[in-house]
Amino acid sequence: MPGRISDQIIEQVRHANDVVDVIGSVFPLKRAGANFRALCPFHKEKTPSFNVNPTKQIWHCFGCGKGGDVFKFVMDYENLDFLGAVRRLAERAGIKVESEDATGHAVRGEKELLFRLHDEAAAFFQENLHAADVAKRYLEKRQITLEVARQWRIGYALDAWDGLLQWAERKKYDPALLATAGLALPRDNGGLYDRFRGRLMFSICDEQGRVVGFSGRILTDAKDQPKYVNSPETPIFQKGRILFALDKAKRTIIEDKFAVICEGQIDTIACHEAGITNVVAPQGTALTEQHARILKRYADEVVLMYDADEAGQNAIVRSAEPLWEAGLALRVAVIPAGHDPDSLIKAEGGAKLRELIDGGESFFAYLLQRLSHQHDPKTERGKLQIVRQMAEWLARIPSPVLLATYSQQTAQRLDVPENAIRQELQKLQRSRPGPAASAPSPEAEETIATAPNLTEETLLLQLMLADMRLVDLALERLDPAWLSTSVAGAVIGRILKLHAAGKWDGPHTLMNALADAEEDRLVSELAVTPMPGTALEAMAGDCLATLERACAKRQSHRIRRQLGQPNLPANERTELQRELLDLELKLRHSI
Ligand SMILES: [Zn+2]
Fold first, then answer.
1. In sequence order, what are the residues at sequence separation of 6 or more whose Cβ sits closer than 8 angstroms to the Cβ of residue 544?
2. Per the CATH hierarchy, to which homologous superfamily does domain 442-590 belong?
């Protein structure tokens, strides 16, 4: 397993990063009773429901249900995986994370060097800008001030074969690293030369705002040169995963719940500077499945804002595919002919562009419109063509509600019976088999019918999270057989196991041991929910008694069912009857 970090180091990193400090350094937290409170960064809200509990080192939002420990916060907030979050927090606390895997470490070492190289190269390009009149003239023409250039880390690559190489030599960078970074290319007769020469340099950042690549725009009219030269794929730069400006846009995207995608860097920068800060752009590639997945983490909806020309319109349909399949709601904002977002802002102001974005029609309506232009919806043949192509898109909608709505709209628009659409869909679905819907099994129904009082398990769990002594009490008195298969029941079982193994050290111990998001959610929610200060032990005792009784009831229910079976051998019947009697006695005495 590459990049494993020992549990010991993970615990050391956890102890060195107080959850209140970590979250409090990102946005302000206010004291509220036993917790700290803030507006949730993961969903839009007006009154704060995001709680951080300093004693339990756990956070939870009552609005959107997200929650967890300090690692989970960094994972969710910065979109990192678990190991990424551990490394980030280790870095914060100045703890050296030694990987148990040597190759994993070597790879990470190279990545870290590449991040540093890109950061310093971006600074070098930025410095060059001040003496580069040709670049400054261009910026002036595009109405990009030097302050905006600084914020977006726009720079200039010297018009020389070895401008960056000489800088790298002074900085003692290994030339091989520059080749890996794609900043230098090999010469035919050995040696290297700069990839970017005499170009305006846009820094491309990842979601965390680290420079991972560059896009260089030509500044002359030279026809034999490409308009843009981009960094190639490197260990830290994968085009299919990078969205330009996502690091700057992600806050607004989370707040507004939608992202706007446009075509280029200059357009994106112009939008942000006009106050439309949820705009991103793919980086020198069509929109990919990975882009869609990244956006889905932040937004429910995407607005495609492309040019009015044929190329732009084709790009809309192409870009829509991965987004549509990811289940994102889609709208289209078409920029009037002859304009791009940048020129439109310059001509008519940001408010005009925002109007276009807010008024953008649904992709579905757009598509129907477009197909109706391509095929005549008044003829039988045209209708059939449109229905078939619409069905292709409809078949990929994950939501049955949206599917029904859109099918209906298509039928109305084309003036065909809705059934015709459904038949086309069925034809398509038959050719791509999906998972069959399963009916609940008789056992599952039985479990639901005799489920114990779930609130008792939840309350017991909350008590155990609030007071360590109650975990001892539960360990002593609770029979694991009393626990149901509910989420709370599963978590209680896990605590008891951890405790028995000598690993229980409070609620945060649990966070790495939980099975799924539902368990995470319940634990973090209970951990930040205030408890009455007294009689906790008596409450726990009541819970235990109730659980015991519920378990006995479940057993007696099961035995009665078995006794009801015909052809039950006499000895088994006697045995079951005796068991039942014991249970009934127990139930009567426990009341
Ligand atoms: Zn929330």
1. 460, 473, 474, 477, 478, 482
2. DNAb Helicase; Chain A (1.10.860.10)
